């Protein structure tokens, strides 16, 4: 019988059956709509069914076979959970069948608790701890109040096998030191949380001005909050209410020993916080991503200095296991690419505003421009050194709105102004580019032209003649 098979083989069979069942399940939810049909009721697409709901529905028949299959199905369905705040309103009709609906839907809007899913999850895990033990990854979306933060930590307290969690950034303000120490501690079963994501968003002005929200319990000041078991931290987005800042990262760095650090889309974190975490994890760090945004959200700003006079190019080389790098720096120099023993591989993306040691900008200084030419040459040398070690490495440098590919000696940019200034004599050999406009987050309705690519020598010629500039 199939139940006598080894558990690993049985699990693979049941997983294939669940995949097959999922293909036959409706993947979208529907409602009724009268706005686009002059009062006539018709079915309208509302949204996609969440993946955790699909997994639950796809194992419905499997749960009814026997106890062993039931337990497997619950573990499969609850492995990843996505809990979000309900938004919107509903009007009810008198029937589920559209063809027998009489008249128009009711004009009454029925209230629904926006935190219903979170409250029900708390109640479910409190009464069925075995289900909570099946959760490996959980994602919370839309809960930004003190009340919901307490509910979130009640859910997390029940999940004794949790490996990854994505939380609203505000939990770092509203959560107590007991909440955070319990979340990050080593559990009795020998497991611990390994991945933490903090997602920030802007709130409404009415929410920001609410004095009840101006609460910070400062959990990072407690010595019981230990980030030593985490292997990955991701900080994403910005907020206009008590955002995560450099001081928070400095506090985290006291105990953190990370393998992956991602800081993206932020406006409140500078290289000071980045360096603090990087130094604390230099012996273990493998992935480093730092892509901040300016406050207007359109362009990547120049990263500020660390404040202690440290050379950031040298700081990066202090991480011997670093292999995946995407970072924004105030300046760069040849030292960044001078160590042939680095383990960098794949696509390495570096954004900078100037050259180390040059007081003048790239726009005005010929020495700075020559220094950057030397950087491109040194980057090519490092790429070749990695190829000799059978390591595939591709480096891309973003300076202003120019994209440099040292391995191909190509420069990608909008060269339309240069064409005008040169009366069409430059560039001579330009080709369409599949890149850009990087350094900007989307087009936002602005009039931006497609990028072109030219050889480095032709780019430098245009730079010297003043057809283009940094």
Structure, explained:
The chain is α/β, with parallel strands linked by helices and 470 residues long. It has helices at residues 7-23, 51-58, 60-63, 67-77, 116-127, 129-133, 146-158, 171-174, 177-184, 205-208, 246-253, 271-280, 312-317, 366-388, 416-421, 456-464; strands at 28-33, 42-48, 80-84, 137-141, 164-168, 195-199, 232-236, 260-264, 287-291, 324-328, 331-332, 346-352, 354-355, 393-399, 402-405, 410-413, 431-432, 452-455. β9, α13 (312-317) and β10 (324-328) form a beta-alpha-beta unit. α1 packs across α2 (51-58) and α11 (246-253) runs parallel beside α12. The chain is globular. The chain starts with 6 loop residues before the first helix and ends in a 6-residue tail after the last helix. Mean pLDDT is 84; it is low at 98-102, 295-305 and 439-446.
Write the layout of secondary structure elements.
Blueprint: H1 7-23, E1 28-33, E2 42-48, H2 51-58, H3 60-63, H4 67-77, E3 80-84, H5 116-127, H6 129-133, E4 137-141, H7 146-158, E5 164-168, H8 171-174, H9 177-184, E6 195-199, H10 205-208, E7 232-236, H11 246-253, E8 260-264, H12 271-280, E9 287-291, H13 312-317, E10 324-328, E11 331-332, E12 346-352, E13 354-355, H14 366-388, E14 393-399, E15 402-405, E16 410-413, H15 416-421, E17 431-432, E18 452-455, H16 456-464
Parallel strand pairs: 3-4, 4-5, 5-6, 6-7, 7-8, 8-9, 9-10, 10-12, 11-13, 12-14
Antiparallel strand pairs: 1-2, 14-15, 15-16, 16-18, 17-18
Helix pairs in contact: 1-2, 2-4, 5-7, 11-12
């Amino acid at each position: 019988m199939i139940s006598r098979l080894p558990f690993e083989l049985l699990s693979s069979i049941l997983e294939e059956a669940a995949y097959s069942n999922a293909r036959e399940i409706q993947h979208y939810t529907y409602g009724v709509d009268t706005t686009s049909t002059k009062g006539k009721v018709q079915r309208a697409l509302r949204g996609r069914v969440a993946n955790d709901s699909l997994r639950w529905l796809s194992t419905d028949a499997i749960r009814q076979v026997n106890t062993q299959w039931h337990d497997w199905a619950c573990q499969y369905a609850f492995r990843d959970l996505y809990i979000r705040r309900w938004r919107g309103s509903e009007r009810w009709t008198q029937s589920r069948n559209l063809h027998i609906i009489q008249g128009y839907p009711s004009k009454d809007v029925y209230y629904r608790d926006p935190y219903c899913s979170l409250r029900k999850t708390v109640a479910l895990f409190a009464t069925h701890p075995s289900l909570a033990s099946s959760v490996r990854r959980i994602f919370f979306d839309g809960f930004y109040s003190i009340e919901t933060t307490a509910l979130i930590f009640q859910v997390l307290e029940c999940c004794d096998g949790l490996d990854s969690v994505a939380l609203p950034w505000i939990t770092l303000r509203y959560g107590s030191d007991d909440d955070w120490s319990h979340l990050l501690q080593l559990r009795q079963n020998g497991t611990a949380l390994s991945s933490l994501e903090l997602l920030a968003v802007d709130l409404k002005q009415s929410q920001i001005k609410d004095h009840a929200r101006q609460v910070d319990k400062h959990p990072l000041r407690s010595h019981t909050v230990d980030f030593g078991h985490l292997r990955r931290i991701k900080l994403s987005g910005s907020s206009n209410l008590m955002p995560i800042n450099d001081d928070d990262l400095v506090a985290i760095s006291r105990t953190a020993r990370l393998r992956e650090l991602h800081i993206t889309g932020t406006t409140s974190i500078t290289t000071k916080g980045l360096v603090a975490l990087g130094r604390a994890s230099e012996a273990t760090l493998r992935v480093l991503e730092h892509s901040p945004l300016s406050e207007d959200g359109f362009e990547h700003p120049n990263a500020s200095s660390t404040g202690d006079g440290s050379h950031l190019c040298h700081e990066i080389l202090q991480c011997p296991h670093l292999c995946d790098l995407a970072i924004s720096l105030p300046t760069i120099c040849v030292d960044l690419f001078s160590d042939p023993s680095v383990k960098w591989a794949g696509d390495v993306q570096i954004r900078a505003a100037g050259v180390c040691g040059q007081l003048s900008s790239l726009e005005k200084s010929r020495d700075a421009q020559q220094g950057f030419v030397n950087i491109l040459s040194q980057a090519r040398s490092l790429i070749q050194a990695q190829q000799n070690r059978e390591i595939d490495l591709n480096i891309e440098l973003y300076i202003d709105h120019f994209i440099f590919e040292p391995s191909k000696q190509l420069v990608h940019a909008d060269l339309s102004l240069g064409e005008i200034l040169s009366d069409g004599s430059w560039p001579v050999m330009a080709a369409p580019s599949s890149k850009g406009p990087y350094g900007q987050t989307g087009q936002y309705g602005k009039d931006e032209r497609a990028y072109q690519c030219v050889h480095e020598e032709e780019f430098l010629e245009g730079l010297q003649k003043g057809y283009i500039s940094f």
